[in-house]
Amino acid sequence: MINTSLGASPARYISSGYQPKKQAPLHDSPQFTGKKHIVPALLLTAAVAPFATATPISRKGNGDIAPSIPGSITTAIPTALVSRSNTDGDVATFTHANPTLTVHVEKGPQADKRSTKDCTITDKKAHEILEKPPFGPRNRSLFSKVVYGSTAYDPAPPQNRSKQDWKNFYVDAQTEFYDTLEPNPAQHAAHKARATRDVQLIDDPKIVSAIPDIEARVAALFLIGTPVEDEAFKYLRSGNVKVQFGPIPGGTDDKAISELVKDEQTGKQYHRITLNELYKGEDPRLHAALIGHEFNHQDGNVNSRPEEETAYAIEARLWLLRLLTHGNKLASMPTQLTQRENTEALAQLNTRVDGRLRTKTGSGAIYPNSSAESAQFTNFDQVIQVNNSTGTVKPNSPGNDYTRGAVQGFTKTPLKKDFTFNDSSNALDQHQGFFSDKQLVRIANASLDLNV
Asked: d(Cα 410, Cα 237) in Å, to the nearest integer?
């Protein structure tokens, strides 16, 4: 069911895009009635030691989509990160020596011009812009080296923040999120108060049990205010999922993995999501998109290609929403995971027909001016590589409540009671729903710095 209010939980979705409403009570979840899952200890760090005695049953990995050129999903990692600035001089320069999550700021007339362009055009003009061929990048360094030959940045180093520092960071970022979606200066104080209420979930016992790592817990809070929020927090409170940072075989090939695991002491099964510990220092808003992806794989496995198509589309749209609300300062963070998520977002944004977002059909190369093999891709689903470690990839698989809520929120289209991932994948292809044309133009022009 689509949320009808927004607060520490629900949200309101209207034809012009997302706008917040009044605060609503924090969610409580009904008893989980689907297939149960468990957390073992295969890839655990010290922070999640209580779940160490378990046996993995199945696993699914989340690598790139954009750089997932047939035969290769690796991304080059340099030994050092150099300073850089946006090509038109409107983003501050940074170095790897002293990165933080808040240093990246837009500045100068070019940033002002880009960030206001979508506000000054008509709905008709915005749609005409989206009817144009896919947009190429003005600043290639925002995207993966595999696609655009740009500098391949390192993963961000650990942040080493206290819990209070993380709370302050969350309140500031989430207030900006609300302020952007409801641009009324008179509401700023209310938005900050709401973000302050939101952050109290960081100490909620059920959320702490599901997500022991503070960094991952902050990431999950960034699902608040998005179309996935309601079902995401029901799932987190169900006792049937654990989210953690940990080592993943293959270095940075996979951003996260889902596993169905069995606790050797209790015999209970859980869905365990492991976020790649090499990316632990990255901005938690990036990890929020990854968590939003992995919640679709509640049996710990990818059973069908439509399931993966659905998960990647939700991940990309969660990141597009953050790019809409935080702009180029978020897109231009010089880190490896930022480049990877930007490249996936570009693939989704450039998959359009008649000016509307699609996933299965496009109107041209989704990576314009790329000299890589990926230049051949003409739609979002083409670049998805299904990584199923347990066996046959089926033509279809049954959906779940989280997927239903996420897809209905992003498409504004109901799914039937017994929907499958084929239904959800088709809905994401056929209904732009959540984003207005002006919002998509703003993301392309102001956030991703594309040639619109």
From this structure: 22
Contact by Cβ (8 Å): 393, 303: yes
Cα separation of 141 and 331, whole Å?
A: 10
Q: How far is CA 137 from CA 105, 113, 128, 265, 342, in A?
A: 20, 17, 19, 53, 11
Answer for the pair 311, 424: CB distance below 8 angstroms, yes or no.
no
Whole-number Å distance between alpha carbons of 245 and 227: 24
The CA-based diameter of the chain, rounded to the nearest angstrom, is 62
Q: What is the DSSP string of 351-405?
A: -EETTEE-SS--SS-SSTT--SGGGG--SGGGG----BTTSPPBS--B--HHHHH
User: Which residues on adjacent β-strands are paired with residue 273?
Assistant: 243, 258
CA angle, 174 as apex, 61 and 325 as ends, to 5°? Answer: 80
The residue among 287, 307, 327, 300 whose CA lies nearest residue 424 is 307
Segment 410-429, tens digit of pLDDT? 999 999 999 999 999 999 99
Taken in order 332, 284, 153, 67, the sign of the CA dihedral is negative
Global pTM value: 0.78
Alpha-carbon distance values, 62 to 136, 252, 292, 309 (Å)? 26, 10, 12, 12
Residue 6 CB coordination number (10 Å): 25
Q: How far apart are CA 35 and CA 16, in angstroms?
A: 37
- Alpha-carbon distance of 252 to 43, in angstroms, equals 15
- Residue 189 half-sphere exposure toward CB, CA atoms < 13 A: 1
What SS3 state is found at 23? coil
Could you read off the pLDDT of 322-355 as tens digits, one per residue?
999 999 999 999 999 999 999 999 999 999 999 9
Q: How many helical (H) and strand (E) elements, i.e. helices and strands, does the chain have?
A: 15, 8
Cβ–Cβ under 8 Å, residues 357 and 130: no
